[in-house]
């Protein structure tokens, strides 16, 4: 209900070896906008997760690389996030949820902007430690075991928008199609 777009397979493409997720004003169902997401079917546990991506720009948009498992998979809501909010593409927001409890947000600078060039984002997930990296530099470490997810999760890439989460993602203002591109 918090999204203003409908997931559409037409908004997921591979061009020139890059995954391309898009957001645009093509009505789908009851919503005015369409957006793209991919997720793995398999669940993954501890390890290193990396992406090289260029994010979308625009207030009210979210370009996300994350892991998630939850009630739809008959598991508690666990999640590890690296999200770039289109209202300020000079930062990436890090967060994690354990049994639906979040509130661990941390904003980290992305030198040169997440939407201007491809940047490397990664996290190393271990039972007692979670480390986040931007362009090869460790930018945050979590060592409180109560704030580290334990359940294997699916991997997601998504680009979506909202009209309702203004305090977090900014006031939505459509200014044309937007694209999130994943190089690897």
Structural account:
The protein is mainly beta. Helix content is 2%, strand content 48%. A seven-stranded mixed β-sheet has the order 1-4-13-6-7-8-9, with no helix packed on it. Strands 2-3-14-5-10-11-12 form a seven-stranded antiparallel β-sheet, with no helix packed on it.
Task: Looking at this protein, list some descriptive labels.
184 residues, mainly beta, seven-stranded mixed beta sheet, seven-stranded antiparallel beta sheet, 1 helix, 14 strands, 2% helix, globular
Could you provide a short overview of the structure?
This protein has 184 residues and is mostly beta strands. The chain has one helix at residues 166-169; strands at residues 5-7, 12-15, 18-23, 33-39, 47-54, 61-69, 78-85, 91-97, 106-109, 119-126, 129-134, 137-142, 154-161, 178-182. The strands form two sheets. A seven-stranded mixed beta sheet has the order 1-4-13-6-7-8-9, with no helix packed on it.
């Amino acid at each position: 209900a918090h999204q203003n777009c409908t997931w559409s397979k037409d908004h997921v493409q591979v061009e020139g070896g890059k995954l391309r997720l898009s957001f645009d004003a093509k009505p789908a169902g009851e919503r005015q906008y369409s957006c793209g997401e991919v997720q793995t079917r398999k669940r993954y546990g501890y390890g290193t997760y990396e992406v090289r991506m260029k994010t979308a720009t625009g207030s009210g948009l979210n370009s996300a690389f994350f892991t998630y498992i939850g009630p739809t998979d008959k598991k508690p809501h666990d999640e590890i996030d690296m999200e770039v909010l289109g209202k300020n593409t000079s930062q990436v927001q890090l967060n994690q949820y354990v049994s639906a409890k979040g509130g661990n947000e941390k904003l980290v600078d992305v030198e040169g902007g997440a939407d201007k060039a491809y940047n490397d984002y990664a996290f190393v997930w271990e039972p007692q430690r979670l480390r986040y990296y931007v362009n090869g530099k460790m930018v945050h470490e979590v060592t409180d075991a109560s704030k580290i997810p334990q359940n294997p999760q699916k991997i997601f890439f998504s680009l979506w928008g909202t009209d309702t989460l203004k305090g977090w993602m900014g006031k939505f203002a459509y200014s044309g199609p937007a694209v999130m591109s994943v190089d690897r």
